[in-house]
Write a structure and sequence with these properties.
The complex is a heterodimer of chains A (about 80) and B (about 500). By secondary structure, chain A is of the alpha+beta class. Chain A has a single domain (about 5-75), classed as Beta-grasp domain (Ubiquitin-like (UB roll), Roll), CATH 3.10.20.30. In chain A, about 25% of the residues lie in helices and about 30% in strands. A 5-stranded mixed beta sheet of chain A has the order 2-1-5-3-4. Chain A is globular and about 40 Å long. By secondary structure, chain B is α/β, with parallel strands linked by helices. In chain B, the strands form 4 sheets. A 9-stranded mixed beta sheet of chain B has the order 10-13-12-11-14-15-16-17-18, sandwiched between helices. In chain B, strands 3, 4, 6, 8 and 9 form a 5-stranded antiparallel beta sheet that branches. The longest helix of chain B has 20 residues, at about 345-365. Chain B is globular, with a radius of gyration of 26 Å. Classes of the chains: A alpha+beta (about 80), B alpha/beta (about 500). The interface of A and B includes residues 22, 51 and 81 of A.
Protein backbone atom coordinates (compact mmCIF):
# COMPACT_ATOMS: atom_id res chain seq x y z
CA UNK A 1 0.00 0.00 0.00
CA UNK A 2 1.19 3.43 -0.96
CA UNK A 3 1.86 5.88 1.85
CA UNK A 4 0.70 9.44 1.15
CA UNK A 5 1.32 12.66 3.01
CA UNK A 6 -2.01 14.44 3.59
CA UNK A 7 -3.12 17.63 5.28
CA UNK A 8 -6.18 16.99 7.45
CA UNK A 9 -8.54 19.70 8.70
CA UNK A 10 -11.22 19.39 11.36
CA UNK A 11 -14.20 21.65 12.07
CA UNK A 12 -16.67 22.00 14.94
CA UNK A 13 -17.19 18.90 17.11
CA UNK A 14 -14.33 17.07 15.38
CA UNK A 15 -11.93 19.94 16.07
CA UNK A 16 -12.91 19.72 19.73
CA UNK A 17 -12.54 15.94 19.88
CA UNK A 18 -9.22 15.98 18.01
CA UNK A 19 -7.92 18.95 20.02
CA UNK A 20 -6.52 20.72 16.96
CA UNK A 21 -7.81 22.19 13.72
CA UNK A 22 -5.20 20.97 11.26
CA UNK A 23 -2.46 18.35 11.03
CA UNK A 24 -0.22 16.77 8.43
CA UNK A 25 0.20 13.00 8.50
CA UNK A 26 1.20 9.99 6.47
CA UNK A 27 -1.54 7.53 5.63
CA UNK A 28 -2.04 4.41 3.56
CA UNK A 29 -5.78 5.08 3.25
CA UNK A 30 -6.97 4.86 -0.35
CA UNK A 31 -10.14 6.93 0.18
CA UNK A 32 -11.42 9.57 2.65
CA UNK A 33 -13.80 6.87 3.97
CA UNK A 34 -10.84 4.65 4.96
CA UNK A 35 -8.97 7.67 6.31
CA UNK A 36 -11.87 8.76 8.53
CA UNK A 37 -12.41 5.23 9.84
CA UNK A 38 -8.76 5.07 10.92
CA UNK A 39 -8.85 8.52 12.54
CA UNK A 40 -12.17 7.77 14.26
CA UNK A 41 -10.67 4.62 15.68
CA UNK A 42 -7.52 6.40 16.81
CA UNK A 43 -9.15 9.48 18.37
CA UNK A 44 -12.56 8.14 19.41
CA UNK A 45 -14.65 10.54 17.27
CA UNK A 46 -18.36 10.29 18.14
CA UNK A 47 -19.71 10.97 14.64
CA UNK A 48 -20.12 8.39 11.88
CA UNK A 49 -18.97 9.32 8.38
CA UNK A 50 -22.59 9.45 7.18
CA UNK A 51 -23.15 12.36 9.58
CA UNK A 52 -20.29 14.34 7.99
CA UNK A 53 -19.15 15.91 4.73
CA UNK A 54 -15.68 15.51 3.36
CA UNK A 55 -13.95 18.25 1.41
CA UNK A 56 -10.92 17.46 -0.74
CA UNK A 57 -8.96 20.41 -2.12
CA UNK A 58 -11.87 22.79 -1.54
CA UNK A 59 -14.64 20.71 -3.12
CA UNK A 60 -17.17 18.38 -1.52
CA UNK A 61 -16.36 14.82 -2.56
CA UNK A 62 -17.79 11.32 -2.19
CA UNK A 63 -16.36 9.07 0.53
CA UNK A 64 -14.92 6.65 -2.07
CA UNK A 65 -12.97 9.28 -4.02
CA UNK A 66 -9.34 8.10 -4.48
CA UNK A 67 -6.85 10.06 -2.37
CA UNK A 68 -3.66 11.48 -3.90
CA UNK A 69 -0.42 12.51 -2.21
CA UNK A 70 -0.60 16.10 -0.96
CA UNK A 71 -4.41 16.23 -0.79
CA UNK A 72 -6.00 18.64 1.65
CA UNK A 73 -8.81 16.69 3.34
CA UNK A 74 -11.27 18.47 5.63
CA UNK A 75 -13.98 16.80 7.69
CA UNK A 76 -17.06 18.93 8.36
CA UNK A 77 -19.95 18.15 10.70
CA UNK A 78 -23.26 19.99 10.36
CA UNK A 79 -23.72 22.97 12.71
CA UNK A 80 -26.88 24.88 13.60
CA UNK A 81 -25.96 27.54 16.14
CA UNK A 82 -27.22 31.07 15.79
CA UNK B 1 -35.23 28.11 45.36
CA UNK B 2 -38.29 27.09 43.31
CA UNK B 3 -40.60 24.35 44.59
CA UNK B 4 -43.83 22.63 43.59
CA UNK B 5 -46.06 21.62 46.53
CA UNK B 6 -49.19 19.50 46.60
CA UNK B 7 -50.01 20.66 50.16
CA UNK B 8 -51.38 24.07 51.23
CA UNK B 9 -48.85 26.91 51.35
CA UNK B 10 -48.08 28.35 54.79
CA UNK B 11 -47.13 32.01 54.30
CA UNK B 12 -46.00 32.47 57.92
CA UNK B 13 -43.45 29.66 57.68
CA UNK B 14 -42.33 30.78 54.20
CA UNK B 15 -41.82 34.32 55.50
CA UNK B 16 -39.55 33.10 58.30
CA UNK B 17 -37.35 31.33 55.74
CA UNK B 18 -36.61 34.70 54.07
CA UNK B 19 -34.95 36.27 57.12
CA UNK B 20 -31.48 37.60 56.44
CA UNK B 21 -29.56 39.93 58.70
CA UNK B 22 -28.31 41.97 55.71
CA UNK B 23 -31.84 42.48 54.35
CA UNK B 24 -33.48 45.89 54.63
CA UNK B 25 -36.74 44.75 53.12
CA UNK B 26 -38.88 41.83 52.06
CA UNK B 27 -41.52 41.83 49.30
CA UNK B 28 -43.99 39.02 48.87
CA UNK B 29 -46.52 38.22 46.17
CA UNK B 30 -49.34 35.77 46.84
CA UNK B 31 -51.47 34.44 43.96
CA UNK B 32 -54.97 33.40 45.09
CA UNK B 33 -57.78 31.42 43.51
CA UNK B 34 -60.46 33.95 42.51
CA UNK B 35 -64.10 33.31 41.74
CA UNK B 36 -64.16 34.51 38.15
CA UNK B 37 -62.25 34.39 34.88
CA UNK B 38 -63.21 35.94 31.56
CA UNK B 39 -66.84 36.40 32.59
CA UNK B 40 -67.33 32.91 34.02
CA UNK B 41 -67.85 32.12 37.69
CA UNK B 42 -65.15 29.79 38.98
CA UNK B 43 -65.85 27.31 41.80
CA UNK B 44 -62.47 25.65 42.21
CA UNK B 45 -59.24 24.98 40.34
CA UNK B 46 -56.80 22.19 39.58
CA UNK B 47 -53.15 22.83 38.85
CA UNK B 48 -50.96 20.32 37.05
CA UNK B 49 -47.24 20.75 36.46
CA UNK B 50 -44.59 19.07 34.34
CA UNK B 51 -42.53 18.97 37.49
CA UNK B 52 -39.04 18.15 36.22
CA UNK B 53 -39.07 21.04 33.73
CA UNK B 54 -40.99 23.41 36.02
CA UNK B 55 -38.43 22.96 38.81
CA UNK B 56 -35.33 23.29 36.64
CA UNK B 57 -36.73 26.30 34.73
CA UNK B 58 -38.14 27.78 37.99
CA UNK B 59 -34.70 27.56 39.59
CA UNK B 60 -33.20 29.22 36.49
CA UNK B 61 -35.65 32.13 36.95
CA UNK B 62 -34.68 32.47 40.63
CA UNK B 63 -30.99 32.39 39.69
CA UNK B 64 -31.52 35.05 37.00
CA UNK B 65 -33.42 37.28 39.43
CA UNK B 66 -30.79 36.81 42.15
CA UNK B 67 -28.03 37.78 39.74
CA UNK B 68 -29.89 40.65 38.13
CA UNK B 69 -31.33 42.31 41.25
CA UNK B 70 -28.67 41.31 43.78
CA UNK B 71 -31.11 39.39 45.98
CA UNK B 72 -30.19 38.07 49.42
CA UNK B 73 -33.00 35.53 49.56
CA UNK B 74 -35.47 34.43 46.87
CA UNK B 75 -38.04 31.69 46.94
CA UNK B 76 -41.07 30.70 44.93
CA UNK B 77 -43.53 27.91 45.68
CA UNK B 78 -46.29 26.84 43.26
CA UNK B 79 -49.22 24.63 44.25
CA UNK B 80 -50.42 21.65 42.26
CA UNK B 81 -53.57 19.60 42.83
CA UNK B 82 -57.08 20.72 43.74
CA UNK B 83 -57.55 24.24 45.14
CA UNK B 84 -60.64 25.97 46.55
CA UNK B 85 -61.54 29.67 46.24
CA UNK B 86 -59.20 31.92 48.24
CA UNK B 87 -56.54 29.19 48.47
CA UNK B 88 -53.01 30.31 47.71
CA UNK B 89 -51.79 29.09 44.30
CA UNK B 90 -48.36 30.66 44.25
CA UNK B 91 -46.05 32.43 46.68
CA UNK B 92 -43.05 34.56 45.74
CA UNK B 93 -40.78 36.16 48.31
CA UNK B 94 -37.57 38.18 47.96
CA UNK B 95 -35.29 39.82 50.53
CA UNK B 96 -32.89 42.58 49.53
CA UNK B 97 -30.85 45.36 51.02
CA UNK B 98 -33.11 48.04 49.45
CA UNK B 99 -36.82 48.14 48.59
CA UNK B 100 -36.60 49.10 44.89
CA UNK B 101 -34.86 45.88 43.84
CA UNK B 102 -37.23 43.85 46.01
CA UNK B 103 -40.36 45.13 44.23
CA UNK B 104 -38.76 44.75 40.77
CA UNK B 105 -37.44 41.25 41.49
CA UNK B 106 -40.75 40.00 42.87
CA UNK B 107 -42.55 41.25 39.76
CA UNK B 108 -39.90 39.72 37.49
CA UNK B 109 -40.18 36.31 39.18
CA UNK B 110 -43.97 36.05 39.09
CA UNK B 111 -44.16 37.28 35.48
CA UNK B 112 -41.45 34.82 34.40
CA UNK B 113 -43.11 31.95 36.27
CA UNK B 114 -46.41 32.66 34.50
CA UNK B 115 -44.69 33.00 31.15
CA UNK B 116 -42.08 30.26 31.18
CA UNK B 117 -43.16 27.31 33.33
CA UNK B 118 -45.19 24.34 32.11
CA UNK B 119 -47.92 24.60 34.74
CA UNK B 120 -51.55 24.25 33.68
CA UNK B 121 -54.74 25.38 35.39
CA UNK B 122 -58.11 23.71 35.04
CA UNK B 123 -61.04 25.89 36.09
CA UNK B 124 -64.31 24.40 37.28
CA UNK B 125 -67.23 26.75 36.69
CA UNK B 126 -70.55 27.06 38.54
CA UNK B 127 -72.42 25.99 35.39
CA UNK B 128 -70.83 22.54 35.74
CA UNK B 129 -68.45 23.19 32.85
CA UNK B 130 -64.67 23.14 33.17
CA UNK B 131 -61.68 23.99 31.00
CA UNK B 132 -57.90 24.03 30.89
CA UNK B 133 -56.44 27.49 30.77
CA UNK B 134 -53.20 27.41 28.83
CA UNK B 135 -50.09 28.55 30.52
CA UNK B 136 -48.75 31.57 28.69
CA UNK B 137 -45.73 29.60 27.56
CA UNK B 138 -47.92 27.14 25.73
CA UNK B 139 -50.21 29.66 24.07
CA UNK B 140 -49.74 29.14 20.35
CA UNK B 141 -52.94 30.88 19.37
CA UNK B 142 -53.09 32.46 15.93
CA UNK B 143 -50.62 34.58 14.09
CA UNK B 144 -49.35 37.64 15.86
CA UNK B 145 -48.51 40.04 13.09
CA UNK B 146 -48.06 43.65 13.90
CA UNK B 147 -47.01 46.32 11.49
CA UNK B 148 -44.62 48.67 13.17
CA UNK B 149 -44.32 51.48 10.71
CA UNK B 150 -41.26 53.38 11.68
CA UNK B 151 -42.28 56.65 10.16
CA UNK B 152 -42.89 58.46 13.44
CA UNK B 153 -40.57 61.17 14.75
CA UNK B 154 -40.32 62.82 11.35
CA UNK B 155 -36.59 63.26 11.02
CA UNK B 156 -34.88 66.47 10.12
CA UNK B 157 -32.12 64.61 8.28
CA UNK B 158 -32.50 63.76 4.59
CA UNK B 159 -32.35 60.29 3.08
CA UNK B 160 -29.67 61.45 0.66
CA UNK B 161 -27.32 62.40 3.50
CA UNK B 162 -28.12 59.20 5.45
CA UNK B 163 -26.94 56.93 2.62
CA UNK B 164 -24.29 59.31 1.16
CA UNK B 165 -21.21 57.13 1.79
CA UNK B 166 -22.92 54.07 0.32
CA UNK B 167 -24.31 55.86 -2.71
CA UNK B 168 -20.78 57.14 -3.32
CA UNK B 169 -19.67 53.59 -4.23
CA UNK B 170 -19.69 53.39 -8.00
CA UNK B 171 -21.34 49.92 -7.91
CA UNK B 172 -24.19 51.29 -5.79
CA UNK B 173 -25.14 54.85 -6.74
CA UNK B 174 -28.72 56.17 -6.66
CA UNK B 175 -29.89 53.21 -8.76
CA UNK B 176 -28.48 50.73 -6.23
CA UNK B 177 -30.02 52.59 -3.32
CA UNK B 178 -33.36 52.41 -5.12
CA UNK B 179 -32.95 48.61 -5.41
CA UNK B 180 -32.41 48.41 -1.67
CA UNK B 181 -35.42 50.63 -1.00
CA UNK B 182 -37.61 48.29 -3.07
CA UNK B 183 -36.23 45.11 -1.47
CA UNK B 184 -38.30 42.93 0.85
CA UNK B 185 -36.13 40.91 3.24
CA UNK B 186 -37.31 38.62 6.06
CA UNK B 187 -34.83 37.96 8.87
CA UNK B 188 -35.77 34.79 10.74
CA UNK B 189 -34.31 34.84 14.25
CA UNK B 190 -33.36 38.04 16.10
CA UNK B 191 -30.52 36.50 18.08
CA UNK B 192 -26.74 36.41 17.78
CA UNK B 193 -26.74 36.35 13.98
CA UNK B 194 -29.91 38.42 13.64
CA UNK B 195 -28.51 41.32 15.71
CA UNK B 196 -25.89 42.47 13.17
CA UNK B 197 -27.99 41.38 10.18
CA UNK B 198 -30.94 43.53 11.25
CA UNK B 199 -28.87 46.54 12.16
CA UNK B 200 -26.77 46.57 8.98
CA UNK B 201 -29.73 45.88 6.68
CA UNK B 202 -31.82 48.57 8.37
CA UNK B 203 -28.96 51.05 8.15
CA UNK B 204 -28.35 50.14 4.50
CA UNK B 205 -31.92 51.14 3.72
CA UNK B 206 -33.70 47.85 2.95
CA UNK B 207 -37.18 49.28 2.35
CA UNK B 208 -39.21 46.45 3.87
CA UNK B 209 -37.58 44.49 6.65
CA UNK B 210 -39.40 41.67 8.44
CA UNK B 211 -38.34 40.35 11.84
CA UNK B 212 -39.58 36.89 12.77
CA UNK B 213 -38.78 35.97 16.36
CA UNK B 214 -41.02 34.28 18.93
CA UNK B 215 -38.78 34.41 21.99
CA UNK B 216 -38.44 36.84 24.84
CA UNK B 217 -35.03 38.23 25.79
CA UNK B 218 -33.04 36.14 28.29
CA UNK B 219 -29.99 37.15 30.29
CA UNK B 220 -27.88 34.48 28.56
CA UNK B 221 -28.61 36.14 25.17
CA UNK B 222 -26.93 39.43 25.99
CA UNK B 223 -23.28 38.55 25.41
CA UNK B 224 -23.90 38.09 21.69
CA UNK B 225 -27.28 39.69 20.92
CA UNK B 226 -26.08 43.27 20.89
CA UNK B 227 -29.35 44.63 19.59
CA UNK B 228 -30.72 44.50 23.15
CA UNK B 229 -30.23 46.21 26.50
CA UNK B 230 -29.73 44.42 29.81
CA UNK B 231 -32.79 46.17 31.26
CA UNK B 232 -35.09 44.55 28.67
CA UNK B 233 -34.78 40.92 29.84
CA UNK B 234 -38.17 39.23 29.62
CA UNK B 235 -39.56 41.43 26.81
CA UNK B 236 -40.37 40.32 23.25
CA UNK B 237 -37.20 40.34 21.14
CA UNK B 238 -39.11 41.09 17.92
CA UNK B 239 -40.74 44.15 19.48
CA UNK B 240 -37.48 45.37 21.02
CA UNK B 241 -35.68 44.90 17.70
CA UNK B 242 -38.36 46.87 15.83
CA UNK B 243 -38.03 49.74 18.31
CA UNK B 244 -34.26 49.78 17.92
CA UNK B 245 -34.43 49.73 14.10
CA UNK B 246 -37.02 52.51 14.09
CA UNK B 247 -34.59 54.67 16.03
CA UNK B 248 -31.70 53.65 13.77
CA UNK B 249 -33.34 54.35 10.42
CA UNK B 250 -36.62 56.30 10.17
CA UNK B 251 -36.83 55.82 6.38
CA UNK B 252 -37.70 52.11 6.32
CA UNK B 253 -40.72 49.97 7.18
CA UNK B 254 -40.25 47.20 9.72
CA UNK B 255 -42.75 44.39 10.26
CA UNK B 256 -42.57 42.22 13.36
CA UNK B 257 -43.77 38.64 13.49
CA UNK B 258 -43.82 37.48 17.10
CA UNK B 259 -44.82 33.94 16.16
CA UNK B 260 -42.33 31.09 15.93
CA UNK B 261 -41.96 29.87 12.34
CA UNK B 262 -43.46 26.40 11.77
CA UNK B 263 -44.54 24.19 8.90
CA UNK B 264 -48.07 25.48 9.48
CA UNK B 265 -47.32 29.19 9.01
CA UNK B 266 -44.08 29.39 7.00
CA UNK B 267 -45.62 29.66 3.52
CA UNK B 268 -47.84 32.56 4.59
CA UNK B 269 -45.03 34.28 6.51
CA UNK B 270 -42.52 34.27 3.64
CA UNK B 271 -45.05 35.21 0.91
CA UNK B 272 -44.35 38.96 1.06
CA UNK B 273 -40.55 38.64 0.89
CA UNK B 274 -37.94 37.98 -1.82
CA UNK B 275 -34.97 37.20 0.41
CA UNK B 276 -34.91 35.05 3.55
CA UNK B 277 -32.05 35.43 6.01
CA UNK B 278 -31.69 32.34 8.19
CA UNK B 279 -30.46 33.46 11.60
CA UNK B 280 -32.02 30.55 13.45
CA UNK B 281 -30.27 28.16 15.80
CA UNK B 282 -31.77 24.75 15.04
CA UNK B 283 -31.75 22.24 12.20
CA UNK B 284 -35.52 21.93 12.06
CA UNK B 285 -36.05 25.59 11.11
CA UNK B 286 -32.96 25.70 8.88
CA UNK B 287 -34.23 22.77 6.80
CA UNK B 288 -37.74 24.22 6.74
CA UNK B 289 -36.41 27.55 5.42
CA UNK B 290 -34.36 25.76 2.76
CA UNK B 291 -37.39 23.79 1.60
CA UNK B 292 -39.64 26.85 1.45
CA UNK B 293 -36.90 28.84 -0.36
CA UNK B 294 -36.59 26.14 -3.04
CA UNK B 295 -40.33 25.51 -3.43
CA UNK B 296 -41.32 29.20 -3.42
CA UNK B 297 -38.24 30.57 -5.25
CA UNK B 298 -36.77 32.80 -2.54
CA UNK B 299 -33.13 33.63 -2.06
CA UNK B 300 -31.81 32.15 1.18
CA UNK B 301 -28.79 33.52 3.02
CA UNK B 302 -27.89 31.07 5.76
CA UNK B 303 -25.29 31.05 8.52
CA UNK B 304 -24.63 28.69 11.43
CA UNK B 305 -22.05 29.08 14.15
CA UNK B 306 -20.26 26.75 16.56
CA UNK B 307 -18.03 27.98 19.39
CA UNK B 308 -15.28 29.83 17.42
CA UNK B 309 -16.29 29.07 13.84
CA UNK B 310 -19.16 29.06 11.42
CA UNK B 311 -20.51 28.38 7.95
CA UNK B 312 -22.12 30.65 5.38
CA UNK B 313 -24.28 29.42 2.52
CA UNK B 314 -26.48 31.04 -0.13
CA UNK B 315 -29.23 29.42 -2.16
CA UNK B 316 -30.23 31.42 -5.22
CA UNK B 317 -33.20 30.13 -7.24
CA UNK B 318 -31.97 32.11 -10.28
CA UNK B 319 -28.64 30.30 -10.25
CA UNK B 320 -28.26 26.62 -11.05
CA UNK B 321 -26.60 25.85 -7.73
CA UNK B 322 -27.23 23.45 -4.88
CA UNK B 323 -29.62 23.84 -1.96
CA UNK B 324 -28.93 22.77 1.63
CA UNK B 325 -30.45 19.33 1.04
CA UNK B 326 -28.15 18.69 -1.94
CA UNK B 327 -25.42 18.45 0.70
CA UNK B 328 -27.46 17.16 3.64
CA UNK B 329 -30.46 15.26 2.23
CA UNK B 330 -31.64 14.28 5.71
CA UNK B 331 -31.86 16.63 8.66
CA UNK B 332 -29.11 15.71 11.16
CA UNK B 333 -30.49 14.10 14.32
CA UNK B 334 -30.81 16.56 17.19
CA UNK B 335 -28.08 16.13 19.76
CA UNK B 336 -25.46 14.69 17.35
CA UNK B 337 -23.69 18.05 17.33
CA UNK B 338 -24.14 20.58 20.11
CA UNK B 339 -26.19 23.80 20.04
CA UNK B 340 -24.88 27.16 21.35
CA UNK B 341 -26.66 26.44 24.63
CA UNK B 342 -24.85 23.10 24.99
CA UNK B 343 -21.35 23.85 23.67
CA UNK B 344 -21.04 27.60 24.19
CA UNK B 345 -20.13 30.32 21.71
CA UNK B 346 -18.02 33.45 21.77
CA UNK B 347 -20.36 36.41 21.19
CA UNK B 348 -18.21 38.11 18.57
CA UNK B 349 -18.33 34.95 16.38
CA UNK B 350 -22.06 35.57 15.92
CA UNK B 351 -21.17 39.17 15.08
CA UNK B 352 -18.74 38.10 12.33
CA UNK B 353 -21.15 35.65 10.70
CA UNK B 354 -24.20 37.91 11.01
CA UNK B 355 -22.17 40.67 9.37
CA UNK B 356 -21.09 38.28 6.59
CA UNK B 357 -24.78 37.45 6.03
CA UNK B 358 -25.67 41.14 5.79
CA UNK B 359 -22.86 41.65 3.25
CA UNK B 360 -24.11 38.72 1.14
CA UNK B 361 -27.69 40.07 1.22
CA UNK B 362 -26.44 43.43 -0.05
CA UNK B 363 -24.16 41.79 -2.68
CA UNK B 364 -27.14 39.83 -4.00
CA UNK B 365 -29.58 42.75 -3.96
CA UNK B 366 -27.06 45.07 -5.64
CA UNK B 367 -25.84 42.30 -7.95
CA UNK B 368 -22.22 42.92 -6.97
CA UNK B 369 -19.49 40.71 -8.46
CA UNK B 370 -18.32 37.50 -6.78
CA UNK B 371 -21.35 37.05 -4.59
CA UNK B 372 -21.51 33.72 -2.80
CA UNK B 373 -23.54 31.41 -5.00
CA UNK B 374 -23.56 27.67 -4.54
CA UNK B 375 -20.37 27.59 -2.53
CA UNK B 376 -20.18 27.15 1.23
CA UNK B 377 -17.78 29.36 3.15
CA UNK B 378 -16.22 27.90 6.30
CA UNK B 379 -14.27 30.12 8.66
CA UNK B 380 -12.51 29.18 11.90
CA UNK B 381 -11.82 32.37 13.85
CA UNK B 382 -9.27 30.69 16.12
CA UNK B 383 -6.82 29.72 13.39
CA UNK B 384 -8.27 32.22 10.85
CA UNK B 385 -8.39 29.26 8.49
CA UNK B 386 -11.09 29.41 5.83
CA UNK B 387 -12.38 27.20 3.04
CA UNK B 388 -14.66 28.25 0.22
CA UNK B 389 -15.97 24.91 -0.91
CA UNK B 390 -17.59 24.17 -4.23
CA UNK B 391 -20.68 22.05 -4.24
CA UNK B 392 -22.72 20.68 -7.12
CA UNK B 393 -26.43 20.14 -7.34
CA UNK B 394 -27.37 16.66 -6.21
CA UNK B 395 -29.28 14.80 -8.93
CA UNK B 396 -31.25 12.95 -6.23
CA UNK B 397 -31.80 15.93 -3.88
CA UNK B 398 -35.11 15.37 -2.06
CA UNK B 399 -36.29 18.93 -2.67
CA UNK B 400 -34.62 20.61 -5.70
CA UNK B 401 -34.02 17.71 -8.12
CA UNK B 402 -36.30 16.05 -10.64
CA UNK B 403 -36.56 13.17 -8.17
CA UNK B 404 -37.79 15.41 -5.37
CA UNK B 405 -39.92 13.77 -2.68
CA UNK B 406 -40.63 17.06 -0.89
CA UNK B 407 -42.92 18.95 -3.26
CA UNK B 408 -44.89 21.09 -0.80
CA UNK B 409 -44.61 22.20 2.82
CA UNK B 410 -47.06 19.92 4.54
CA UNK B 411 -48.71 21.11 7.73
CA UNK B 412 -47.73 19.30 10.89
CA UNK B 413 -50.00 16.50 12.03
CA UNK B 414 -51.91 17.55 15.18
CA UNK B 415 -50.07 16.48 18.29
CA UNK B 416 -53.14 15.41 20.26
CA UNK B 417 -55.22 12.35 19.41
CA UNK B 418 -58.72 11.68 20.76
CA UNK B 419 -59.77 8.27 22.01
CA UNK B 420 -62.23 8.01 19.10
CA UNK B 421 -59.41 8.46 16.56
CA UNK B 422 -57.66 5.43 18.05
CA UNK B 423 -60.58 2.99 17.80
CA UNK B 424 -59.33 -0.13 16.07
CA UNK B 425 -55.80 1.17 15.47
CA UNK B 426 -54.36 1.63 18.96
CA UNK B 427 -52.05 -1.28 18.13
CA UNK B 428 -50.33 0.83 15.43
CA UNK B 429 -48.83 3.03 18.13
CA UNK B 430 -46.12 2.29 20.70
CA UNK B 431 -47.91 3.29 23.90
CA UNK B 432 -45.54 5.07 26.30
CA UNK B 433 -46.66 5.63 29.89
CA UNK B 434 -44.86 8.80 31.05
CA UNK B 435 -46.51 8.96 34.51
CA UNK B 436 -44.35 8.86 37.60
CA UNK B 437 -43.96 5.38 39.09
CA UNK B 438 -46.34 6.07 41.98
CA UNK B 439 -49.08 7.29 39.63
CA UNK B 440 -48.61 4.30 37.33
CA UNK B 441 -48.77 1.84 40.24
CA UNK B 442 -51.86 3.51 41.73
CA UNK B 443 -53.86 3.25 38.49
CA UNK B 444 -52.51 0.78 35.95
CA UNK B 445 -53.47 1.35 32.30
CA UNK B 446 -56.12 -0.96 30.77
CA UNK B 447 -53.57 -1.84 28.05
CA UNK B 448 -49.97 -2.85 28.71
CA UNK B 449 -47.75 -0.01 27.45
CA UNK B 450 -44.82 -0.70 25.12
CA UNK B 451 -42.66 1.35 27.48
CA UNK B 452 -42.89 2.86 30.95
CA UNK B 453 -40.71 5.93 31.16
CA UNK B 454 -41.53 8.77 33.60
CA UNK B 455 -41.39 12.18 31.89
CA UNK B 456 -38.57 13.26 34.22
CA UNK B 457 -36.35 10.47 32.81
CA UNK B 458 -36.74 11.64 29.19
CA UNK B 459 -33.91 13.95 28.19
CA UNK B 460 -34.29 15.60 24.80
CA UNK B 461 -30.56 15.89 24.20
CA UNK B 462 -29.96 12.25 25.09
CA UNK B 463 -32.97 10.27 23.91
CA UNK B 464 -33.20 6.58 24.69
CA UNK B 465 -36.69 5.56 23.62
CA UNK B 466 -36.03 2.16 22.13
CA UNK B 467 -39.45 1.43 20.66
CA UNK B 468 -40.30 2.22 17.03
CA UNK B 469 -42.38 5.32 16.16
CA UNK B 470 -45.22 6.31 16.08
CA UNK B 471 -45.30 6.93 19.80
CA UNK B 472 -48.45 7.64 21.79
CA UNK B 473 -47.63 9.32 25.10
CA UNK B 474 -50.02 8.90 28.02
CA UNK B 475 -50.03 10.70 31.37
CA UNK B 476 -52.73 11.20 34.00
CA UNK B 477 -54.67 14.00 32.32
CA UNK B 478 -52.99 14.57 28.96
CA UNK B 479 -51.19 17.83 29.79
CA UNK B 480 -47.65 16.59 30.49
CA UNK B 481 -47.88 14.20 27.55
CA UNK B 482 -48.92 17.04 25.22
CA UNK B 483 -46.08 19.22 26.44
CA UNK B 484 -43.54 16.42 26.02
CA UNK B 485 -44.91 15.47 22.58
CA UNK B 486 -44.54 19.08 21.40
CA UNK B 487 -40.98 19.19 22.74
CA UNK B 488 -40.12 15.89 21.01
CA UNK B 489 -41.60 17.15 17.72
CA UNK B 490 -39.45 20.25 18.02
CA UNK B 491 -36.42 18.02 18.61
CA UNK B 492 -37.08 16.26 15.30
CA UNK B 493 -39.23 13.26 16.30
CA UNK B 494 -42.04 13.53 13.75
CA UNK B 495 -44.37 10.69 14.72
CA UNK B 496 -45.10 11.44 18.33
CA UNK B 497 -48.60 12.01 19.70
CA UNK B 498 -50.32 12.70 22.99
CA UNK B 499 -53.55 11.05 24.11
CA UNK B 500 -56.03 13.83 24.87
CA UNK B 501 -57.52 13.35 28.32
CA UNK B 502 -54.73 11.05 29.48
CA UNK B 503 -55.10 7.58 31.04
CA UNK B 504 -58.91 7.76 31.60
CA UNK B 505 -59.40 8.32 27.86
CA UNK B 506 -57.67 5.00 27.17
CA UNK B 507 -60.66 3.21 28.75
CA UNK B 508 -62.85 4.59 25.92
CA UNK B 509 -60.73 3.24 23.08
CA UNK B 510 -62.44 0.30 21.44
Amino acid sequence: METKTLTIGYYALLREQRGLSEETLDSTAATPGELYAALKNEHGFSLESNQLKVVINDAFKAWDTPLNPGDNVVFIPPVAGG
Amino acid sequence: MFEVWSTPLDPAALRVSMKNVEAGGFVVFEGWVRNHNEGKTVERLEYEAYEAVAISEGNAIIAEATERFGLLEARCVHRVGSLELEDMAVWVGVSTAHRGEAFDACRFIIDSVKHRLPIWKKEHYTDGDSGWVNCERCAHAGMALEEATCKHNAPTLSEASYYARQIHLKEVGQAGQEKLRNARVLVVGAGGLGSPVLQYLAAAGIGHLGICEGDGLEASNLHRQILFDAQSVGESKATLAAQRLAALNPFITVTTITERITRNNVVKLVADYDVLVDCTDNFETKFLLNDVAVLHKKRLIQASIYQYEGQLFVYDPKHDGPCVRCLWPEMPKPGCVGSCAEVGVLGAIAGVFGTLQAVEVLKHLLDLPDKLQGDTFFLDLLSLRSHKVKAERNATCPVCSTQATITAIEAEAPVELDATELNGNLGDYALIDIRERKEAEASPLPVTPALRCPAGDIHLDDLHIDVPEPWLLVCTRGMRSKYLALALRKAGCEKVYSLRGGAPALEQVK
